[in-house]
Design goal:
By secondary structure, this protein is α/β, with parallel strands linked by helices. Helices cover 35% and strands 19% of the residues. InterPro entries: AB_hydrolase_Est10, AB_hydrolase_fold, Hydrolase_4.
């Protein structure tokens, strides 16, 4: 049985950053502190990375799958003046609770589970703030893939969140995303034989293979007023990038402070440890908004 195949495919793309010790190549110009915090009745375990000079702070929010804390990425961000809290996903590693996902035959893009994961990210935000000095720059949520649905919910829940950064985060409903992924069927050469128009036609008309209430990130994004940056790969076969960009442009036309950057030669894994181009772009953007963000 392989229910909700998307959830498994999406998580593996960013696993290169899931490790428990920092890379030895990083000089020790930041401190690390293991922490635990409570969220919806369970204890979540994580690590805070605190640089000597803090320009901003972020919570790392997982993609789908059984994801532990992302130490390598947190180290890279801390080296660039960004304080980080990264944690083991609910029900994974040293965190309590129950993991929902395809490996155990459950649906982890059900709206109730996305909301639960958003509450974990919100609780992590409060924990990181409590460990930062009085002057620390803006606090944001940075996440991957599935986090495209989780982060907007968390930002709306927690008014301490000042910005969002999403790598390959879908700006379509969960059901639309599944229609697209079943259409591409993991074919890395999909875009060599299909057009954007064909993909959109399929997304509009394909019958849903699973029946559950979909989550539309646009419902929340229309209500938020904080800056957001989406980073996409032009060859993504997991999420419909063209449609996501169209929705972002609609939101921008309404005055929302949302931006996106498209890397035409990249696929879904826009935060690859092999290439730091997209990470550097995200860091540059975060530092550019420092001092220009307003409380929600």
């Amino acid at each position: 049985m392989k229910p909700y195949l998307f959830l498994l495919l999406c998580c593996a793309c960013f696993s290169a950053f899931a490790q428990t010790t920092p890379d030895s190549t990083y000089p020790p110009n930041f401190t690390m502190e293991n922490v635990e915090f409570k969220s919806v009745g369970v204890s979540i375990a994580g690590t805070i990375f605190k640089p000597k000079h803090i320009y901003a702070a972020v919570i790392l929010v997982h993609g789908s799958g059984q994801e532990i804390r992302m130490v390598k990425m947190a180290s890279f961000l801390a080296e660039n003046g960004i304080a980080v809290l990264t944690y083991d996903k609910r029900g994974v590693g040293k965190s309590g609770g129950v993991y929902a996902g395809p490996e155990v035959g459950t649906n982890n893009i059900d709206s109730s589970n996305l909301t639960l994961l958003a509450l974990d990210a919100s609780a992590a935000s409060n924990t990181l703030l409590a460990h930062l000095p009085a002057v620390h720059g803006p606090l944001g949520l940075m996440g991957f893939s599935q986090a495209g649905w989780v982060i907007p919910i968390a930002a709306k829940t927690n008014r301490n969140v000042n910005f969002m950064v999403l790598f390959s985060g879908p700006v379509v409903t969960t059901l639309e995303q599944l229609r697209f992924q079943f259409y591409t069927n993991g074919n890395s050469k999909f875009w060599e034989t299909h057009t954007e128009a064909e993909a959109r036609e399929h997304i509009r008309n394909d019958a849903d293979k699973y029946k559950f209430i979909g989550t539309d990130p646009n419902d929340v994004l229309t209500k938020l007023s904080i800056p957001g940056l989406w980073i996409f790969g032009g060859k993504d076969i997991q999420i419909p990038v063209g449609l996501s960009i169209e929705h972002l442009n609609t939101l921008k036309a309404l005055g929302k402070p949302y931006e996106y950057q498209l890397f035409p030669d990249l696929g879904h894994n826009t935060a690859s440890s092999k290439s730091q181009e997209t990470l550097k772009a995200a860091i540059k953007w975060i530092k550019s908004i420092n001092g220009h963000v307003k409380p929600q």
